[in-house]
Design brief:
The protein contains 22 helices and 17 strands. By secondary structure, it is of the alpha/beta class.
């Protein structure tokens, strides 16, 4: 029975699905149905070309995506192979595939089949152990920074014995020592870390041609999703497996490559043509998600990038509304504007809270939004994040400040004690110097600064580490709150009252991600632009659209970094289905400093005929 695609695929998708003359690159734009194309292609091989499912390997980046692909393929096969049991292709993440491979074949590298996989916490503890054995102080070199450097080396396929020849400067030379010791300890404990799963799998194939040949024969057809997010190890693994049969299909969109800080390299998409000269490319440019005005704006922004291919997306939907542009007077006005727009939409249409999403560049920006939404009784979810006052670094700082007022606060004392004896001693030395009068004399922001300096708390975090950098930004944002409440008692009381506002919301279950029956909660979604990839919403608000914030200040002097920021803006814009709001502020209290920033270049790159400016007098103070 011939497998008929005509009802389910557009012409571009169909051409890509039925291509059968060698390696294939599918450049799939945002919302263009790439998962459909990939799963139909797997079904095409099984139903039309007679390829056994066990000879097909589908690889992606999340277990959720892998499960969805398997489910879709199962439906396609059951629909077209009635009354016939059919097995399914292997579908999983790079890491899950490599983990299974090493369980079976790891003996060739001396890896026990029952090896342990260490998570980030385990890895950090082992780094500390290695540093201790080498006599390297954790106060001089942060374990998390060393672990990050080792992770980057493994993703680039640089082993512990090769790393010393590339090391320059005292930090990298220290990493080289720890890397060697760390790997010896992993081997001693019969454990691998997540990066080892990829690196050891590649080494297995490099060193054992017979094992590589076995898996090349087993997986004649290889399909890889989100190829723009692969690192060097993942690229090499894919290339090795596909080398024999060359039935490689990769789906990618370089314009959505936003994880460079994790080692992802969109240039792997460009490199494919060097390793596979007969590579055929098909573009999927019909978008099923957004109105044309939104797609035109997204294209206007991303077309300023010059280092990767850019697709011109189109849709059969109508042009839709113009993109709304609002100039806020402050970060609070920005948040109040969102409240007004959401309430207005809820009143005048059939909208649900879950139809709205708010994107921001850094987690620290969520603080004002959270407080404003709580005050306005708008339910919300922090997707992929922890609410501001519950973040570890914020709770640490608050514990110090609580003890300035109440030395009997045992909960806070226990918390700061975990930060180390030296910091605890220095803190109480500061308390003694200040005395009760001194504590009353200084402002909240001065006291916070003195505590951070005396305890050397900020040295716990490395600005070069992405996660640590955002923790430091959160602490700066706490300083913004302190600046609003000069008296320490008022400052801490405000924090407590804000936290109390969460309780009735939590009791209703609005802050939990899922109900027991897995239904979506009716709440506005707050998230970073990074977390938004792969999602879609009827209405999207992108806030903080200012130079230094989005694009981030760290990227302003680096062309490659600016291009990644632009790709991130493109991802945010293309999440919107019907309506998009871009919001910037004239002045913003951010990181404890009241500053004025220029409007984001990404707004300036959108043609004016696609924009509608919302004036102050169009925005009332209430909806009465």
């Amino acid at each position: 029975m011939s497998f008929d695609f005509t009802k389910d695929l557009n012409p571009q998708q169909k051409r890509a699905v039925i291509y059968n003359k060698g390696p294939l690159l599918i450049l799939a734009g945002a919302g263009s149905g790439k998962t459909r194309a990939l799963t139909y292609r797997a079904a095409f091989f099984i139903l039309e070309k007679g390829i056994e499912p066990e000879n097909i390997l589908l690889v992606t980046f999340t277990n959720k995506a892998a499960a969805e692909m398997k489910m879709r393929i199962a439906k396609l096969l059951s629909k077209n192979l009635k009354n016939k049991q059919q097995s399914l292709p292997y579908a999983g993440t790079f890491h899950s595939f490599c983990a299974r491979l090493l369980r079976i074949e790891g003996r060739y590298l001396g890896i026990a089949p029952n090896y342990l996989i260490y998570d980030t916490s385990d890895q950090t503890d082992l780094i500390k152990q290695a540093m201790g054995q080498l006599g390297i102080s954790v106060s001089h070199f942060k374990p998390v920074s060393i672990l990050s450097a080792i992770s980057s080396a493994k993703n680039e396929l640089v082993g512990s014995t090769e790393y010393p020849q590339y090391s320059r400067g005292i930090f990298q030379k220290t990493v080289a020592q720890v890397y060697l010791k760390y790997q010896k300890l992993l081997r001693k404990y019969e454990a691998l870390d997540f990066d080892d799963l990829l690196f050891e799998a590649v080494k297995l194939f490099w060193k054992n041609p017979e094992v590589l040949a076995k898996y090349q024969h087993r997986f004649s057809h290889i399909l890889v999703d989100e190829y723009q997010d692969t690192n060097k190890a993942q690229y090499e693994l894919t290339k090795l497996l596909a080398k024999k049969w060359r039935h490689l299909t990769v789906v990618a969109d370089a314009s959505q490559s936003i994880y460079g800080w994790r080692g992802a390299n969109f240039r792997n998409v460009l490199n494919l043509s060097h390793d596979f000269p007969d590579l055929q490319t098909f573009n999927l440019e019909q978008n099923y998600r957004s109105k044309q005005t939104i797609l035109d704006a997204a294209h206007a922004v991303i077309s300023h990038n010059t280092t990767h291919p850019v697709l011109k997306l189109w849709t059969k939907k109508d042009k839709g509304e113009k993109i709304k542009l609002y100039q806020a007077r402050s970060e609070k006005d920005e948040a109040q504007f969102l409240v007004w727009q959401i309430k207005l939409s809820m009143r005048d249409s059939q909208s649900r809270y879950s139809d709205f999403a708010v994107f921001y560049r850094t987690n620290a920006q969520s603080r004002v939004l959270e407080e404003t939404f709580l005050e306005a009784a708008i339910p919300y979810l922090l997707a992929g994040g922890i609410r501001f006052y519950q973040r570890k670094e914020i709770k640490d700082c608050l514990a110090y400040l609580h003890l300035l007022i109440n030395k009997k606060d045992l909960v806070s004392f226990r918390r700061i004690k975990k930060l180390g004896k030296r910091r605890t001693t220095r803190f109480f030395e500061l308390v003694g110097k200040l005395g009760s009068e001194g504590i009353k004399k200084y402002s909240s922001t001065r006291l916070l600064g003195k505590v951070l300096k005396a305890t050397d708390y900020l040295s716990l975090y490395d600005r070069k580490n992405e996660q640590d950098f955002y923790r430091l930004e959160n602490i700066k944002e706490l300083d913004s709150v302190a600046a609003e409440f000069p008296k320490l008692e008022d400052f801490l009381e405000n924090v407590a009252l804000v936290e109390q506002e969460y309780l009735p919301v939590d009791q209703l279950g609005i802050l939990s991600k899922l109900t027991k029956n897995k239904e979506k909660k009716n709440a506005v979604i707050l998230m970073t632009a990074h977390a938004a990839k792969g999602l879609e919403f009827k209405t999207v608000f992108m806030v903080g659209m200012e130079e230094g914030l989005f694009p981030h200040s760290r990227s302003l002097l680096n062309k490659e970094a600016i291009e990644e920021e632009r790709r991130l803006a493109y991802v945010g814009i293309t999440r919107a289905q019907d309506r998009l709001f871009l919001i910037f502020s004239l002045r913003r209290l951010y990181f404890g400093i009241r500053s004025s920033n220029q409007i984001s270049r990404f707004i300036a790159e959108i043609p004016q005929d696609l924009l509608e400016f919302i004036k102050d007098n169009d925005y009332p103070s209430s909806l009465s």
